[in-house]
Amino acid sequence: MARIVKRGKNSWRIEVELARDKITGKRRRFKKTVTIDINKKIKAGTIPKKVKDLAIQFEAEVKKGTYFKPSDITLAEYLRNWLEKKKSEIKKLTYRDYKMFIEKHFIPFFGESLLLKDLEPYHIDEYKTFKLKNGRSDGKGGLANRTVEYHMRVLSQALSAAVILELIPKNPAENIPAPKVSKRKQRKKICILTPEQMQVFIRKGKNHTDFDCWYFSIFTGVRRGEMLGLRLQDINWEKQFARLEQEILSNPGKGGGVIISDLKTEGSEGVIPLTNGIMEMLKRREQEIEKNKLLLGDSYNNLDLVFCNPDGTPINPKTLYNRFKKFTRSLDLEMRYHDLRHNLASFLLACGHSIKTIQEILRHSTSVITTDTYLHLMPKADNKAVQDVEDKILDLS
Fold it and tell me: Which domains can be identified in the chain, with CATH numbers?
């Protein structure tokens, strides 16, 4: 158990001792001084709860091997430790990306021995320059600006956490400009269908294996993974809405398969309205699922998924995407699955609905995002509008 010793008016020293080192036989002691603000007087010999909590945390870190003295920790050790603490806060695929950045990019460039406290802005700038010129793993040139910008954002995030922990006085990455990423390049070409084209899409696709998935996406605007993660228990049959709580993601690892992940961002979780047509389709799917359960018995994978394979297993988003691309190309359309979401926004605008309504349906965190994404679809001011102003002013003279 951690030992707590009062050092000053508002400071305490926490001491943790582990078993002797098996090789050297030396005692292993760890010490840490903490200072807290106290607004009221405390009795002599009394230890504030906050100090006790810090002692428990410190002891756990020492025993787990995740505590390092600020002067001793290397950048490599810190980044790995930061990521493990971050793991519970981020999605599985985000964790995989961060780990790849750390193990395949950051540590190979900065090395295993560079101390965190010795990391300078110069090192960060050198990293950026190198990755833009020679960052590809196959040796064929540099990484894209957007990729390097993402690297630097993650690295800066980790270093900002080190500042909060008082491991370093300042984030050496905060004043290094990230590579510029053109908004025009960021925005992929969106395929927007006319109502007539959408009618053709629906008519020719209605017998396709994935048509229910497409229909649901067209009239709800949900993302592919969110739709595949929908469960029967998430549907409110009486009030005609569904609650989004999880998503299905393709596993980019060697084993492939899928990952079922909770929706952790406020903009992702939410309630979506369901049309009458969708409700009819969902009831039919529920009946089909019950038939498959009876047919397969114990072989059925009961994950409660609405959109799944006949045996109940999740549909891989990549498989859904590939089949969608094959179908749309048969219609001479160059269309991404995500464009179904954009098409809903386009039709909502055409029907005269406000940006605020579209923001709520698509669950964007702010209307600024909605406006920025769909500004090019909004009706443009015409000559008559400005002509009206001129006529009004000239009539007054």
Answer: 3-64 (no CATH), 75-185 (1.10.150.130), 195-334 (1.10.443.10)
